[in-house]
Every structure is written in structure tokens, then in C-alpha cells.
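Need C-alpha cells for this chain, all 263 residues.
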Amino acid sequence: MSQIEPLLEIMEKLRDPETGCPWDIRQTYKTIVPHTLEEVYEVVDAIENGGIADLREELGDLLFQVVFYAQIGKERNEFDFTDVVSGISEKLTRRHPHVFDGQSMDESELSASWEQFKREERQKKNQSEGQDESLMDNIPLVLPALTRAAKIQNRAAKVGFDWQTIEPVWEKLQEEMNEIHEAINDNMGLDKIEDELGDLLCVCVNLARHLKVDPEKALRRSNTKFERRFRYIESRLARAGKTPEEASLDEMDALWDEAKKEE
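Here are the C-alpha cells for all 263 residues:
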């Protein structure tokens, strides 16, 4: 704890009602959430596009978010940083008996044991809250939609509610494409089109699962690729004294193809 204590002291001073930072003093659990999400994505970005120095810095920013929540919890007499550390330490020890209790397990047994621990934790939480148990419990609503869809589908797949091969996924993909095409052609309205598009995206997530691909990562890669190629278009047009607004679609398509070839 000696290495973390200076940071905890800094956080406490930032939240001091009389001498602290006005912005930090105003914050609550809820108001920090957007900043926490931003820091998580900046860690991901550092891993995928930055260097080790960037990653170290972003992990520090993310750690500060944990310390921030812990300080608010301490002030409210709900929990403190020590409780957070103790809780995760106990959970990791309990979920890894093959490491800490010397139990011998192969990979399939480890997976089954992990799921059993998580199931017991969900049961305990539901009992304390007086709720019925569901496999869909504890999948955060704030997750990116593609990530949440994959988690939902993975939970269902664990009890056999899944296609066993990829062929039915292709068929379902075509079916959903036909349905959204029909919704558009028959002027069924924006709500219906949104429903059908959502169904199509869910099937795309299912396809990604069967291909062992993280759909969120795949889309991030496509976004990066699109941005890189569009920047190429802008750069080439600028050399010709043009802006994208002044160029025709044919011109930009041709430059897009150039960008693809250069890759």
C-alpha cells in the first residue's frame, strides 16, 4: 500500500471541502462515469495505437478514477480503497483454486469452475435483492452495444441456445437483410427499420462469435481504416487545390481506390 498512499493523499486533498479543487469537490459517483468510460477507451487506444509510455500514462489515469470513487465512498462511510483491494483480492483467490489451493484442473474444468463461481455470485446477489435468477443478470447496460450483444449471446450459448455451425448464421444474415430491405421498400416507418437493422447487427455479432472475432475490435479496425483512407482523399484533393465539398463522388471514389492500393 506504500506506493498507493501518496495518490490517496492527493485525492483526499483534492476533495477537501475547504481547500480542495472546486471541480473535484462537486463530483459524485454518477458524474464521474463519463470520465471513467473515456479513460477506459484511452487505455484501449494506447494499446492498439500508442506506445508503452502512452499505455503507462493512461493506466495511471484509469487508476485515478478508481481512487476517485474510493474517496467518495470513504466520505460517505460506504467503502474505501482498502475495501476495493480486499474485495478483488478475495474474488481472484476464490475463483482460482487451481493456483491458490493447489487443485489440478484442465482448461475445460477451469472454464466450468469459473462459470460456477460467477453463477453462485449472481445467485447470492439476486437473493439479497429478492430477484429471480437469470443468465442475463449483471450484463451492464452501459456496455457498447456490440460488446453487450456478444456477452448476451455467449451467456445463451453456454446452455445450448446457439447454432452449432456457421451455416445457419449465413442463412439468418440473408433473412435479416431481406427483412430490412422489405421494411424500407414498404415504408414501414423508422421504428420498424430500426428494429430490423438492430436484428441485422445482432446476427453480425453472432457471425463474429462463430468466427472467434471480437465484433467491437473488428468495427474499431474498420473505423480506423475508413478514417485513414478518407484522410488520404483529403490530402490528395488539397494538393489539387480542392476540398471534399468541391470534389465529385467519382473523384473521391477513385482516390479511395488509390488509398486501398497503397495499403
